[in-house]
Amino acid sequence: MPRSLTENPRWYQTAVFYEVFIRGFFDSNGDGIGDLRGLIDKLDYLEWLGVDCLWLLPFYSSPMRDGGYDIGNYEEVDAAYGAREDLIKLVDEAHARGIRIIADLVMNHTSDQHIWFQESRSSGDNPKADWYIWRDDDSGWPEARIIFTDVEQSNWAWDSERQQYYWHRFYSHQPDLNYDNPEVVEAMLSIVKLWLDTGLDGFRLDAVPYLYQRDGTSGENLPETHAFLRRLRSEIDARYPGRVLLAEANQWPTDLVDYFGSSDECHMCFHFPLMPRMFMAVRREQRLPITEILAQTPELPDGCQWGLFLRNHDELTLEMVSDEDRDFMYAEYGADPRMKRHLGISRRLAPLVENSRPLAELLHAMLFSLPGSPVLYYGDELMMGDNVYLGDRDAVRTPMQWTPDRNGGFSRADFAQLYLPPLMDPVYGYQAVNVEAEYRDQGSFLHWVQKMLSVRRRHEVFGLGSIEILAVDNPSVLAFIRSYYPESSLAVKDSENFAGNLEGDDASQISTSLDFREDSKEGEERCVLCIFNLSRFAQPASLDLARFKERQVTELLGRVPFPDIQEGDYRITLGPHGFYWFSIT
Ligand code: BGC
């Protein structure tokens, strides 16, 4: 039965997102570059997989020196991807399958080829002279860190035409816009509307923390930036209800939650600090990195949601970890210098876990059950590999592998014409790893992901429930309870942070805040116990579930009844990297 769009304006709280690099997804016209029509051709696949919302990487006209994050014209679709009509068709076709679409929006900077910058650099007194940030010397805002430390030496770059320095937080070919100029603010708001009018369901807001600069600050998370986001949100709420803003703010949890405002800024934020800690936890075979960061994560304001992810189109960023943990991550996951990019590791999920299926399943099971909406990266559902010999972050942006045919079924162009070579190595190459083969094989990772998503879809507790970390005697075992009370929109109870009443550096107590309302709908499960073995070896665990005495425990994937909870400890054995999702009824 075809799915239809839910009318719930808070759809994003229970959605599964899928990140698409249009350039690498499917080439419909044989020019070697993926395009919007190609993506339309593959919507049936995405519907089958069970995702609810696509996140499109920037599709705007661009010189493509930073994967399209260097926008040359905000008002046009890049000719290689198609035209505005193709985007409208894509949105309509996706909606007809119950899938929403959000687009990346790069507000912080443009390409130096953008006509605004060309005009701005032409003199000190043209109408766009102050649309960017110009100075006579490069000494301003020394407290602002350099983000691409491996390629840029300064946040200032000299422009020989204007004979001045301009400010940039990323590549020097990406000058920052000047948001202190009200004309820039208005121009950006009209671009937002221009694209929302195509029917898009919202935006992933690229690099939002850096919109403003102020003397004596790091130029991140400034009050002016939050004021701008409130303005943006109010304009969207007024004219485009049900659309979502998802912030890319690579920040510590306490700064991150500010991007939700009082439910009046972004609806969602990526949980950047959690991501590397999931990789750390499985390599250390200890739950501590995860429980520690959950304990530091403040409660979500009403109507908000985390975006959770394992991998994306960028490097596995290590900005939000200590120096010691960064060294550990480089040693464990990025030993070859070619794998290091910017402040992180440019590798895909499967090679990171050495192609271990149980480990890939474990990480995804955590991704699908921790509080937030999971965001998958194209190809990871196949356990696609990477190519560390490619420059910048292209290692993880190779063509999607559809079939074992020429070019992996991605394009009919000559191999030499492809935007990047598809993987052809014996382990991850398209002849071994592709959609066609995995679709036929019921035991494939692709089918496993599809089944997990269909189970997740049946239990809104994963999107809407509160979390409490349970005390477990075995440090290699992570266990938590997600619970949801259907009559209240978000069942976060009595707890200051979303890890319930965690204390110190680990889970030590079980909250007594869980109870069941008598008026909850009959038969609807409200409580899911999730247990994960982070170790390579089988592990026993003993959980204190006394307050659930006499309740029934049912394994969710197979609906298999497990022993009821008796007095005191509930004992479980988990296989290597094993996990369980249990409903407690
Ligand atoms: C995007 C990157 C991009 C950068 C500059 C980011 O945060 O995810 O891919 O290079 O912004 O636009």
List keywords for this structure.
single chain, 585 residues, alpha/beta, 8-stranded parallel β-barrel, 6-stranded antiparallel beta sheet, 16 helices, 24 strands, binds beta-D-glucopyranose
Arithmetic mean of pLDDT:
93
Ligand species: beta-D-glucopyranose
Radius of gyration, Cα only, in angstroms? 24 Å
Tell me the strand percentage band.
15-25%
Count of helical regions: 16
Shape: globular
Distance between the termini: 29 Å
Q: Would you identify the regions where 5 or more consecutive residues have pLDDT less than 50?
A: 488-523
Instruction: Assign the structural class, choosing from mainly alpha, mainly beta, alpha/beta, alpha+beta, or little secondary structure.
Output: alpha/beta
Largest sheet: 8 strands, parallel, barrel
Fraction of helical residues: 10-25%
Oligomer: single chain
Number of strands: 24
Please state how the strands of the largest beta sheet are arranged side by side.
Answer: 1-2-5-9-10-11-12-16
